[in-house]
Amino acid sequence: MYKFLVADDHPLFRDALIAVIRSRYEECEILQSEDITHALDIADTHTDLDLILLDLNMPGMAGLKGLLELRNQSPTIPVAIISAETNKQIILQTIAYGAVGFIAKSAPRDKMREAFEQILEGHVYLPADIIRAEGDKDSSHRRQDEPHFSPEMLHTLTRRQLLVLKSMAQGAANKQIAYDLNISETTVKSHVSAILKKLGVHNRIQAVVGVTNIDFDRYLKR
């Protein structure tokens, strides 16, 4: 049975989010907090939490300081951000600070459930529409520390690997990719590992960020 902590200062949103969680994990235990101080106390007491869903704009958060405090205090408990934030660099920074995913508050219920599943399976979740945030589509604005894949690197990928990478860039979880491509989830995981190795990155977030402006159809036509 999974155990969640929902940390958000808006009671109505907490109730809505809890309803989404229970629609997928009916028997789970859900704790609640409306500020970072209480969230820290709960995490300290309940070390068996499977996932903390953390709002960026709660009282006491002070930007990303609250996330850092939570990660430093309870490094073994996964923390996913659930927020209305749309700034791409801030969102990517939450991942750099140790969050295992970012879920937009505007996301449909099925996307939220997909995000929970992916995170609880040990993956990092970052929706494609956040990666393609307005104002970051022009490659001339690409940060130097963001990965860039040359055509030669992408040509090393097989057609099936390209299809998997394209689905990853669209925010699909392994289970959905397996269903769409009619292959097993184990095979998808093998493809993802091969993709990361060929592209020289350490996780799927780096891979997805690096293909933000890639025309997959161009490579799939070969």
From TrEMBL:
What top-level branch of life does the organism fall under?
Answer: Bacteria
- Say yes or no: keyword Phosphoprotein present: yes
Q: Which residues cross the membrane?
A: none
- InterPro entries (alphabetical): CheY-like_superfamily (IPR011006), EvgA-like (IPR051015), NreC/VraR/RcsB-like_REC (IPR058245), Sig_transdc_resp-reg_receiver (IPR001789), Tscrpt_reg_LuxR_C (IPR000792), WH-like_DNA-bd_sf (IPR036388)
Among CDD domains, the record links this protein to: LuxR_C_like, REC_NarL-like
**Residue ranges of coiled coil:** none
Q: Can you provide one Gene Ontology molecular function annotated for this UniProt record?
A: DNA binding
The segment(s) forming the Response regulatory domain are 3-120
**Which Gene3D superfamilies does this UniProt record tie to the protein?**
3.40.50.2300, Winged helix-like DNA-binding domain superfamily/Winged helix DNA-binding domain
One GO BP annotation of this record: regulation of DNA-templated transcription
Q: Which residues form the HTH luxR-type domain?
A: 150-215
Which keywords fit this entry according to its UniProt record? DNA-binding, Phosphoprotein
Q: Which residues carry this modification: 4-aspartylphosphate?
A: D55
Recorded protein name is DNA-binding response regulator, NarL/FixJ family, contains REC and HTH domains
* Species this chain originates from: Enterovibrio norvegicus DSM 15893
